[in-house]
């Protein structure tokens, strides 16, 4: 197993480095100290061919110019906050609106555009990178100095382990996720419409016209949102279900997980034989099928960007929880510790 480091570009006068983790089986994961962004995961198909199974860019400028959030850590709060404000202990905090009247993915310069401190780490059967970042009191309108640590491990079992922890010196809100777009066909050569997704989820959150939760938890039974026995992504793109239409002919929905850390999210691509199993300690996964992905640029390798080129499996707390008292809270106290654990296991069948 080994770790290599090379210069990827710079932001302002700060260097952006690419760290490549490689295990003994040849699988590789490359990530940047810009937003902890995963730029490439080379995973084998059933014939052993290594191909990239995430979307990314070849240049640092594109990560800043295109608001795709490819592969990055999203924070302090993943998703949307209605009205770009929230209250804690009777005090209202105003955040920058960056999607209409709402606050999206941490604001104008969320965690995805910040340079993190990074250092290689090693264990007996894993190599990794430890990222740290201090989000100062008042950054993007959030209270408290928030110290964040994200560690990416690659193991010899072709498993990417992602552990994110945070502590604060003032009561604040935290809900972090990774925003990788997966495409198991390899090198973006096919859309994700024939990918089959299986979820251990009986309910999903209803969204309104601004893609914010209404507060209603809908049953998946009898709908295109029922992934309990496996379903192709294609079903949601042709569905006339109001929630599929609302999301731009596809999915952009939080699914409440009925189990944790027990193969609760499985993505398959039958043609290549690739299988991705996602396990997490978080209460939900936001499934986004890149319904709004721009078509006026190219990703790495010159592949044209287009709708349905990738699928995001964003493990996290429930979006806009600050405005729904019956959602699990995303408040972090000074004596508390935020901890999000998600593992991504790549295999073939």
From TrEMBL:
GO terms for molecular function: aldose 1-epimerase activity; carbohydrate binding. It comes from the Bacteria. CDD domains: galactose_mutarotase_like. The active site is at residues 179, 314. Transmembrane segments: none annotated. Keywords: Carbohydrate metabolism, Isomerase. The keyword Flavoprotein does not apply. InterPro entries: Ald1_epimerase_CS, Aldose_1-epimerase, Aldose_1/G6P_1-epimerase, Gal_mutarotase_sf_dom, Galactose_mutarotase-like, GH-type_carb-bd. Pfam families: Aldose_epim. One of its GO terms (biological process) is glucose metabolic process. It catalyses: alpha-D-glucose = beta-D-glucose. Pathway: Carbohydrate metabolism; hexose metabolism. Beta-D-galactose binds at residues 179-181, 252. One of its GO terms (cellular component) is cytoplasm. PROSITE patterns: ALDOSE_1_EPIMERASE. Its EC number is 5.1.3.3. Belongs to the aldose epimerase family. This is Aldose 1-epimerase. It comes from Caldibacillus debilis GB1. The lineage of its organism: Bacteria, Bacillati, Bacillota, Bacilli, Bacillales.
């Amino acid at each position: 197993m080994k770790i290599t480091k090379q210069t990827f570009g710079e932001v302002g006068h700060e260097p952006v480095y690419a760290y490549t983790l490689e295990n003994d089986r040849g699988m590789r994961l490359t990530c940047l100290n810009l937003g902890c962004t995963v730029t490439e995961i080379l995973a084998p198909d059933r014939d052993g061919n290594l191909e990239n199974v995430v979307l990314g860019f070849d240049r640092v400028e594109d990560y800043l110019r295109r608001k795709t959030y490819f592969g990055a850590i999203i924070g302090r709060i993943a998703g949307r906050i209605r009205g770009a404000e929230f209250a804690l202990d009777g005090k209202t905090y105003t955040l920058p609106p960056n999607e209409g009247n709402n606050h999206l993915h941490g604001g104008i310069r969320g965690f995805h555009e910040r340079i993190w401190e990074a250092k290689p780490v090693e264990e007996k059967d894993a190599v990794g990178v430890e990222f740290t970042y201090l989000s100062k009191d008042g950054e993007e309108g959030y209270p408290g100095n928030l110290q964040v640590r994200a560690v990416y491990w690659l193991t010899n079992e072709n498993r990417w382990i992602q552990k994110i922890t945070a502590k604060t010196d003032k009561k604040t809100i935290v809900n972090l996720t990774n925003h990788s777009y997966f495409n198991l066909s390899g090198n973006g050569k096919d859309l994700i419409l024939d990918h089959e997704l299986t979820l251990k989820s009986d309910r999903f959150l209803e969204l309104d016209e601004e893609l914010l939760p209404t507060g209603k938890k809908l049953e998946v039974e009898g709908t295109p949102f029922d992934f309990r026995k496996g379903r192709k992504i294609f079903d949601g793109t042709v569905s006339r279900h109001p929630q599929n239409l609302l999301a731009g002919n596809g999915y952009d929905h939080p699914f409440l997980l009925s189990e944790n850390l027990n193969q609760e999210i499985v993505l398959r691509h039958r043609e290549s034989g690739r299988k991705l199993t996602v396990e997490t300690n978080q209460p939900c996964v936001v499934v986004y099928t890149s319904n709004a992905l721009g078509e006026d640029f190219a990703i790495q390798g010159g592949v044209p960007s287009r709708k349905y080129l990738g699928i995001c499996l964003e493990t996290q707390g429930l979006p806009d929880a600050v405005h729904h008292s019956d959602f699990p809270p995303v408040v972090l106290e000074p004596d508390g510790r935020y901890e999000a654990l998600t593992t991504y296991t790549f295999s073939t069948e």
